[in-house]
Design brief:
Four copies of one chain form a homotetramer. Chain A is α+β, with helices and mostly antiparallel strands. In chain A, 50% of the residues lie in helices and 14% in strands. The first copy, chain A, has a domain of 191 residues: Butyryl-CoA Dehydrogenase, subunit A, domain 3, CATH 1.20.140.10. In chain A, the strands form four sheets. In chain A, strands 2-1-10-11-7-6 form a six-stranded mixed beta sheet, with no helix packed on it. Chain A has a four-stranded mixed beta sheet with strand order 5-8-9-12. Chain A has a two-stranded antiparallel ribbon with strand order 3-4. The longest helix of chain A has 37 residues. The interface between A and D is large, with 91 and 90 residues.
Chain lengths: 479, 479, 479, 479
């Protein structure tokens, strides 16, 4: 299994990355991109840290491999995976690490759908998927997944758009492979992964078969252009002022496919339009389970920071604070409870793969997403206005300013001013900065929209049971 | 095990019941009380109905006993109990049956607390509890629980009240037993149970030891006066117009203890003030698990009725209806998920008794209670104004009126007018009548208040874990 | 101006009313219908009560007429009308009186739309409207409005339905007038009004001109059949147990038009399909202003009852009670504020008629409707479980029961038990009975649906202003 | 009246300002502080801009003065003031300008309270207030207000704290004036104002008279130390990427009073503890009216940006988008409506000063504060994930990156890619950056807390009216 150095080194492969409009020669040397790389390296560090080996590594000696790759076959496997993701995200300062998480979600889905396509269409995709799976697992590779197309006018289908490339599509085929053109947005960890897995974003119709395509390619494949989002770009944050953002960063790209050649062996869907939606959905469902798992440190941090500030400010007995704390606790623990139940009551799919209970996963995700902003408001309310008007590390260290800050910004007796300010700064990052804005946008949009989660819930709900009950109660005997 | 007749017959025991100010000579002959008795008999009918024997009966032949009495020792036991309660409530038209449910909740708590009191005070309460338990189990008796004191001024403690009897208390002792005086409110199923279990309502202080009392007595014990609430009093409802209330009813009493003698062997707490709060709490926690289980048919009925009306009105494709359905589904299924997890992740108390996870149970109860009224609004919204302005059974049967009702009150083609009206009437009873008002008040107040649930959550939450996480993230190293 | 006796007498006109499937010979003699008639008579009593003359009567001596009929021309007129409606509803025990309110809303709309149709189509409808207006005003008549068609499958238009009569339509014409066929639902106060005004329920298309019809006819017109809803049918309620429902009632009918002849002079729209939607909307907007005005006593009663119970229970200092009271106050006062502003910032339509500000009216209605059920929950929470389990008047009066009720159901020292129980009963009726269920369904459905209010808001909102601001801030200069 | 240059020049007065721990020699030369100064100068620019003269200037020629100073005497005055504040904030990119707004709020309150203190205590404060008022008005000075004390342990009063200076207090008196010591937090615009008005933060008790102090001093008074918060510190933002923060900034200080001498003529409260709470409250109430006025551009910008993105993304017909737009509209327009009504139904205080209706102002503020975060969620939801993952200006301008960004990030046909990205960037700043975090924290904490607003509402509400209504309806005749 690779260590951090090997991982970092592997990223010097000539990939075509742009940041603020300019080509980045070596992502590992770039100050801001390096932050994202160091953050991602947590996954590799854990595997070599005795504290986490048992959690992060499966098998022993030469057979050892990253636990992320384990195909889940039981509740225990799913709970293990969830704990691994939660732990890595905790070490990541509430920010998901993602370079193994999302790729394995895609691999689980590819196993299931390739199996189904092969059965129905006589194709041989499962063999390809397995070869690719062995490759990334054995070489311990970092993976990104590109799914969301740029979409153009959202009221229109791929063929109705101003030009046909608003959704990624197959534009040709050669003896070596297929040629694809288009662009994906929101591709996380692409600048610092080894492989890029590409999946369709939605169901396709018969005349849209060119858009039904899935594959995987190395990140330095010719024609793949990674245009990094500069969102939240700071590289000089103080650790005191920005305890999270100064150490943790994830980056997204607009990922352009400029007539990219994909070798046949790496193609997992090639025009079978009937399965585009199924693949999109199967991936997203695994990914939503991953997502709710990596939200746990974030919601627990909100609860913990609120409890800490309540203590530091001397407000334990204020009833309106208790009320807000109760809502924060119910919010966080409902999420945790639903994750656990989704694993405990999983379903078993093809190849014995354990699929977290879809209805519960979507309820958990919807619960998280639709209440998140209100929880930020509660934590801000409990903490106080100093979130936005407090001093920084330099003020604490300044001779004149430090004297006054220490004299006047204490809270409850016995609490160190530095600690109170650190806690306030944590709340600031969790609720009121670029870093929290990023988390908030992800809460709404990542892993499919709020509306998609509602649709999934409606589809998975046992409506027949409820309608039968209603008819029985109403005395309706007609079918 | 008793059958319905034996149960009904057993209620003719001279008990002192009042309805609308008048003494009821025989509760089984009174038209309105009889409705409540027939409803309660569901518990006895299930035990003799082959469809439910497996669920409702434990053991075989002479050893057979009602499953309600089984002391839970495992997740499986708790899930079985939950399913039993859910099923009986379904047969009860969304109204809990309760004559076994609440009494066994009290018995579980009495086992645990008697064990603890005996260990700490050298008393012999557990033996008494076990004798009483064997008695009710072997004779298959129906039980009510009287817990909530009348309380007077709620800002004052028992001794600060205008008179000392606003909380039930011990006023004397004789060789035969203790004498108790006071009154309890909200005593459900007392008019149609065999035994009355009495528990303290809150924690007591050293000088309040006279108020720390628990016991059980037959319902016809001298001095016990049951003043029945007339709430929702109708006894001529049509089954068509009121599919639930015409068949199902539960009744509460103001339960007066006019210097009642309780034999020593039936006394389970006698002045040990330190345990009053513990007993109150332990009972309530078991009872909250029971409660969330018996809310399931109600919330599923809301979902089912909404789905049915959506279909009958031809509104499946209306997005705003889908939105409301999604919220109803999330509401109901979150409740169900939390119940399951509370059983799956139970704790084990003294005597091996399985205790549903308290944090989860309280979250489930709070979720149910704080969103219930909004769910009624959604179901009313989906159904339409005919809930309040539609015709009744007599209109459908009237020669002239029936003609027009049939012509004009159809919905989607192919749906029978009668069925649409039945479904509307179900919604009416679930959301907009005395019957639903009763359910709504119970949603808020039964099994402890919303505020009590928040306190329980705060107490059970693993706050230390969250505070540690916050400190780690903020870089705070001081304890 | 008529007095109560004249009004009651006028209802003995041979109208074809059915209650519980049977023809009612004389509505004034029927015990349940009479309750609705006595309630409606409040409008007539006020005009003759010196306490209310100034509010309820316009003009003097022979020129005196009911203030409801005054065409509003200013903010002052609108505020006066709002106060009149609020006061009558207060006297009506939170239940609107409606026999003048809704009819005048229709008349205001008919003036405006007739004026417009005449201008665009060369018709002479305004003259007819004015003659009808003078007739009802001069004879001080009670009016009902039938608007909502039965609709059948709601996803289909009038002509797509299973039969063409799911929406009221013109089926013929004679020298005397037009012949109409169909049925309306939710027709309030029809059984006890003198005139029935009929309006279209929605916009119509060119091929639906037969459905574009508006007119007014006496309630005893041949072929008009009033099938009364039995919802909440109790006629023996005690004034103590049911302080509102025992005295106040409003009734709705399924109103059938069995080929009814409408004289030409009473026809106000006759196939001009382009104006059906406009007439429907204009009426509804006036009626929503009326509606929010008559909701004020209801929301103030919720606030007042909650404050009273807080006092009676000794809970003034409980913070969680204060929190719920604050939300109740904000709810009620926001409604009141929006009503006032809608009047103060009205628009002026044709004929100088003052139209309450549509955006504000719809926001007020939406605010009322979407938060109402939650407010019921707060009031129930504050009051306590006795809402559903308390004793009735007979218990208070019973010799034995009265003794115990008086001893044990006191609250704060100094509060009479009777008063506390009366306050609890008020809460019961406001939140947890058929009466409150009726109010709750009306909150959701009356005066157009919640979704209709959102559409009206979107239509009336000054979106251009906000988009321009956003563009300016974003630096977008293109149109 | 001063122009921008005069204003900027006036800030070079030797004031003791610290930024990131270091003394700032000249605030007008510091790149980040200069941003705040230029932003504040909007108030001076408006007075000289013909487009705004009528709004911003009162009187003519030598008598001309800034409209902010006008003591409001009527609804018209209040609406004028509200419009002025709204307009300046619009020009300020949704960020309040504040250098006149808050100071005049304090001046209005000082007039009222000085008048009251003089009447009750025989003091001569009103003369001093008027002299100071004439001074700032005639010299067109910028003013900051320092009110919130640092408070220490919030569960303790001033004298119970770890040291007596956690609340600002009088520590001595000389012939020239009084000596004050302590510190205030959250002091906005202090680094760029001319005068600092200091007010008490809460009611005081008799033994806390040293803490009952109010005064005004020039910002460069010896001993006044301004420690600027570095929150949101960026000074190199691109106008394209950060259309608001690149041009608009407000700064707060920890304002230390190191034994500052305040001349007697500038002291407005000097130990009269009975009036500390009254002064705090009166100021806050004026300031809340100011606050809700300057929130209007922010909430309208949220609505406008959401509408614009709906259009750019081609989503006008998506029902779930319409639902969220309706909620945004109701949110913004309810705020606007309540502001207008608070002005229209103002009360008149001493000296004829018009006081916006307190109940309505607090309801408006509470409405704004408690729903704000949810509105951010809606706007993010409507806009899409590109908020957090989109390209920046440099990407648009890069040769290679610009090509792809232009090809792939279009939305609806006909919309320029630049414009769509600009709109997305506006949403980013309004909802998901340091800038929006700052606004969100202010939404919760500025102008008094959410809980303070609830208390003000409870105090101002006409509870007697509602209780009387409830009693009348319940039939309760006892007082």
């Amino acid at each position: 299994m690779r260590n951090k150095n090997e991982y970092v080194h592997s990223l010097r492969d000539g990939r075509e990355v742009y940041f603020k409009g300019e080509r980045v020669a070596d992502v590992t040397e770039h100050p801001e991109l390096r932050l994202a790389i160091d953050h991602a390296a947590i996954d590799y560090e854990m595997a070599h840290d005795p504290a986490w080996t048992q959690l992060a590594v499966e098998g022993e000696g030469a057979d050892a491999y990253s636990s992320y790759f384990k195909l889940p076959k039981s509740s225990k496997d799913l709970l293990h995976r969830s704990e691994l993701i939660e732990t890595a995200t905790t070490l990541g300062g509430t920010l998901v690490v993602l370079i193994k998480e999302i790729g394995t979600d895609a691999l689980f889905a590819l196993h299931l759908v390739a199996h189904e396509v092969d059965a129905k269409k006589g194709t041989k995709y499962l063999e390809r998927v397995r070869r690719f799976y062995d490759h990334v697992k054995n070489h311990d590779l970092a993976m990104a997944v590109a799914q969301t197309d740029v979409k153009g006018d959202r009221s229109k289908s791929p063929l109705e758009q101003e030009h046909p490339d608003y959704y990624l599509r197959i534009v040709g085929e050669t003896p070596e492979g297929i040629i694809v053109r288009g662009a994906k947005v929101h591709t996380s960890v692409s600048i610092n992964s080894n492989e890029l897995i590409v999946l369709p974003t939605r169901a396709m119709k018969p005349d849209e078969s060119a858009y039904a395509v899935a594959f995987a390619i190395p990140m330095n494949t010719k024609g793949v252009k990674l245009i990094t989002s500069p969102y939240g770009s700071h590289h000089d944050d103080s650790n005191f002022d920005a305890p999270l953002a100064s150490k943790h960063r994830m980056m997204e790209t607009l990922t352009v496919f400029d007539d990219v050649l994909v070798p046949h062996d790496r193609v997992f869907l090639n025009g079978e339009w009937e399965f585009a939606g199924e693949l999109a959905k199967t991936f997203v469902e695994f990914h939503r389970f991953t997502a709710i798992s990596y939200k746990l440190p974030l919601v627990d941090a909100l609860v913990g920071a609120a409890l800490l500030m309540t203590h530091y400010n001397g407000l334990e007995k204020a009833k309106h604070i208790q009320e807000k704390l109760a809502r924060l606790i119910a919010y966080a623990e409902t999420l945790r409870a639903l994750i656990r139940l989704a694993a405990l009551e999983h379903e078993t799919g093809a190849l014995g793969i354990a699929i977290p209970k879809t209805l519960i996963v979507n309820m958990a995700k919807l619960h998280f997403a639709t209440n998140f902003h209100q929880m930020l408001a509660y934590v801000q309310d409990i903490t106080g206005g100093l979130i936005a008007t407090g001093p920084g590390e330099a003020d604490l260290n300044g001779e004149e300013t430090g004297k006054w800050v220490r004299r006047y910004l204490g809270g409850r007796k016995g609490v160190k001013v530095e600690d109170r300010l650190k806690a306030i700064n944590l709340v600031k990052e969790l609720t009121a900065t670029d870093f929290s804005g990023y988390q908030a946008v992800l809460a709404i949009h990542a892993e499919g929209s709020i509306e998609a989660e509602k649709l999934a819930m409606a589809r998975e709900h046992d409506s027949a049971r409820c309608v039968s009950l209603a008819k029985m109660l109403a005395g309706i005997t007609h079918p």
